[in-house]
What we know:
- By secondary structure, the chain is of the alpha+beta class.
- It is 38% helix and 32% strand.
- It is built from 2 helices and 5 strands.
- The protein has helices at 32-49, 75-98, and strands at residues 2-8, 14-20, 55-61, 64-71, 103-109.
- It has a 5-stranded mixed β-sheet, covered by helices on one side.
- A hairpin with a 2-residue loop joins strand 3 and strand 4 (64-71).
- The two termini are 27 Å apart.
Amino acid sequence: xxRVNIFRDVDDKVQKFEIKGHAGYDVYDRDIVCAGVTAxxxxxxxxxxxxxxxSIKKKINDGYMYVEIENHGANDDSIRLCAIIDTMIxxxxxxxxxxxxxxxxxxxxxx
Length: 111
C-alpha cells in the first residue's frame, strides 16, 4: 500500500509531504497505481523546482518521497506553488478513490 501524508500549518499551507510504499496492484513493472502516484508526485516536484523564488528540500528513493517546502516564494510563485501542491493532492486523492485498497491519503494539520 502507498501512504501519502500531507502536513499543513495552522494557516492551511502545505509544509511538507511524504509518500511511501508500493501499491502492490500488479508486478513491479506493470503496476499502474504505483506509476500513477509516481507520475503525479514527480511532476509536482518538477513544477515546484521551476519556481524562481520558492525552494524545497527533497529526498527520493525507491518507494519513498519526502518534500519539505523551505520557502513558499514571493507573489506569483507563492500562488503557483499552492496551485501545484493542491493539484497534486487532487490527483492523489482521485487515485485513492479509484484504488482505495492500494493508496491512502492523509491530510493533516501540524504546528
